[in-house]
Design brief:
- This protein has 16 helices and 25 strands.
- By secondary structure, the chain is an alpha+beta fold.
- Its cofactor is Mg(2+).
- Pathway: Sulfur metabolism; glutathione biosynthesis; glutathione from L-cysteine and L-glutamate: step 2/2.
């Protein structure tokens, strides 16, 4: 790096990140920037435009699956013997479904309706060198970092304008026109639409209220606050609570209105918690079994007329189990979920290969190349995948009743950047020669309908890492925030 002001440009990039809320909490009074690249990753225009134009179909599919209770029960029941968390989720879903059925019979609440399903989903892809972009996983609960996705795009544009010489040196000849990213604005627009819809149904006084359910002492709070600030700018009041804080604070108002002590009526509930057992633990509640009390708090929310993301059924519909079943099903079978034949074919193009685990899997995997498959369980976030030689070891250690809770996914191998990439981590520049990227596309649907004029697409999130690293999360792995540009 010959340009003499390279260090200064990097320092200003760090300061820009912190100034604009692209930060992770360290202590109660300090923060640090997340790792980020100094230039975008490139993608062929045709590949990105196909993803952008078709990803809304995944939201359409997942919504329909989440509304088919009998299908969900049939799909999830086999994994409950080996996964106590999904056993609890399915029990919650059955409780909520029974209540909804009774409400329809009794015509109670507002027009006999229960909660309004708001599906905010991030579909994560890798652009395989041979196969093209293929789905890694659905993220239907706590699908975060959309605001950071927009911020890193804006940071790259800032560097291009303010520091053109070092930016050109970092970029090389490959980077073309940056691909716009309004993920923060898109998510806020979709959430606001559902929040105002509920508010207008009740026609009560005051501003609508958005409730974000969060984890206690979480460090990934600035991304969440950026979303809150965008909602506040649209005239929406925002409130943050943990499940424990909601346990004895929620109540029922007229016409199944959800009420929060000290706040009043709630119009939209957005879960950034609830995808792991620890979110439901409250050792100070002694009248019920651990986790049961807070699980019932979540169930209570869905028994009211309020917009909810993610519903329990949405969480089940975006599980690895459902992804495996949908991926392995023939295209024509997907038409039962409201897709046309052409839409089903496009969805099949996006879905990667996944197969079920059984008693033959351990022996079968021994005959396969080490880098051909990944073993996955039902966990959300990092740390739930098994690679290479460890796959056979794990498969031989599984109890038969755990087989259904695991699946094998064909491992994707995207081409790394054609030249060295520059990543800033803890204020220092690191050069990575084999940077690969994961492409997350956000969609927003309200009761199955696209919430945005764009057809449901709401922006993107790029996380990049060395191809030698298996854990690529920005928050808990070795990934870095990144943006996209068309290939020059």
């Amino acid at each position: 790096m010959a340009y003499k002001n390279t260090e200064k440009a990097k320092n200003e990039a760090v300061e820009w990140a912190l100034t604009h809320g692209m930060a992770l909490k360290q202590t109660d009074d300090s923060a640090r920037h997340p790792a980020f690249t100094l230039t975008p990753t490139v993608i062929e225009s045709a590949r990105f435009e196909r993803l952008k134009s078709s990803v809304h179909l995944l939201g359409k599919l997942v919504h329909a699956v989440s509304q088919d209770h009998a299908f969900l029960v049939e799909a999830i029941s086999p994994i409950t013997a080996g996964n106590v968390f999904f056993k609890a989720l399915l029990r919650m879903a059955e409780n909520i479904h029974s209540h909804a059925e009774n409400s329809r019979v009794e015509n109670s609440g507002v027009n006999g309706q229960t909660c309004l399903p708001l599906l905010i989903m991030r579909s994560d892809f890798m652009d395989d060198a041979t196969l093209g972009p293929k789905l890694i996983e659905f993220n239907g609960i706590a699908a975060g970092m959309g605001p950071f996705g927009q911020r890193i795009h804006e940071l790259h544009r800032y560097l291009c304008t303010q520091w053109p010489s070092p930016y050109a040196e970092w970029s090389g000849s490959e980077v073309g026109e940056p691909i716009p990213n309004s993920a923060l604005n898109g998510l806020a627009e979709g959430i606001a639409a559902s929040t105002w819809k509920i508010k207008h149904e009740f026609s009560d006084a005051g501003a609508p209220t958005f409730l974000m359910v969060v984890q206690d002492r979480e460090d990934n709070v600035y991304d969440q606050h950026l979303l809150e600030h965008a909602l506040q700018a649209k005239g929406i009041r925002t409130v943050r609570r943990t499940f424990r804080e909601l346990y004895d604070g929620l109540s029922t108002g007229d016409n199944r209105r959800l009420m929060l002590e000290g706040i009043g009526s709630i119009d939209c509930v957005y879960l950034r918690a609830g995808y792991q057992f620890s979110d439901y633990v409250a050792h100070d509640i002694v009248d019920k079994a651990c986790c049961e009390a807070l699980a019932q708090t979540r169930v209570m929310i869905e028994k009211h007329r309020v917009a909810v993301n993610a519903t329990v059924s949405q969480q089940l519909a975006t599980s690895k189990r459902l992804q495996m079943l949908l991926s392995s099903a023939p295209a024509e079978s997907l038409t039962r979920f409201g897709l046309t034949e052409s839409e089903a074919q496009e969805v099949k193009y996006l879905l990667g290969d996944m197969i079920a685990v059984d008693e033959q899997s351990a022996e079968w995997i021994k005959q396969r190349p080490l880098d051909e498959w990944v073993l996955k369980n039902q966990g959300e976030g990092g740390g739930h995948c098994v690679f290479g030689e460890n796959i056979h070891t794990k498969l031989t250690a599984l109890d038969p009743n755990e087989y259904e809770a695991w699946s094998l996914m064909r491992r994707l191998h995207p081409l790394p950047r054609s030249q060295a990439a520059y990543v800033v981590r803890k204020g220092e520049i690191y050069v990575i020669d084999d940077l690969i990227s994961e492409i997350g596309l956000f969609t927003v649907h309200i009761d199955g309908e696209p919430a945005l004029d764009s057809g449901g697409y709401a922006g993107y999130l790029i996380r990049s890492k060395s191809s030698q690293v298996t854990e690529g999360g920005v928050h808990s792995g070795m990934g870095a925030l990144d943006s996209l540009a068309y290939k020059g």
